[in-house]
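Project standup — Tuesday

K.O.: blocked on the structure for the chain from last sprint. Re-posting the sequence here as requested.
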Amino acid sequence: MDNGRAEDRREYMPDGSAERSVERTLGHLRTMDGVAPAQPAGPLTLEDLYKIHRMRLVRLAILLVDEPATAEDVVQEAFTGLYRNWGKLRDAASAVAYLRTAVVNGSRSVLRRRKTAREYVPPHVVNARSAESLAMLSSEHQSVVNALSKLPPRQREVLVLRYYGGLSEAEISEVAGISKGTVKSTASRALEALQKAMSA
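H.V.: unblocked you, prediction finished:
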């Protein structure tokens, strides 16, 4: 991990307890998702990108929208968009950045539609995560994931991109379409809210 990312994190929360919990939990999920398959020699195809990055993108979407089936749809839509824009991309790195941004934007759209629908239909609680996924988490990790799901979407997005996605402030700023200063202040507010939620 580079020093810039470590400094980014230290500025978010002086005591760091909520931050350590988020980092442990989302790092644990990243580990559970395993190492991406080795990249083939030569230029990457769309199929290669799908094999290498699909599962991590699905987990990213699950952490943002709370529903595995919806997360799968968001990721599928991101790959469809990548297919449509394949000729405009310079290299594999820009393709991965495109996919990550598409998943974040697709998740935002889902949350907006969900909020609109709830204004017309009485809200109901949906147990979104698969039983096997939660069963594999310790009670500490489960409480962190549950607290994350209660954060406002932008705050959850910044923490998930930072601690699950492993992105720097600059990368989060680019993916989320917000300034670096907003990334920093949003992360700080999110960690404070998470600390309160986990202490209650």
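K.O.: great, moving the ticket to review. DSSP finds ten helices and no strands in the chain. Residues 120-131 have pLDDT under 50 and may be disordered.
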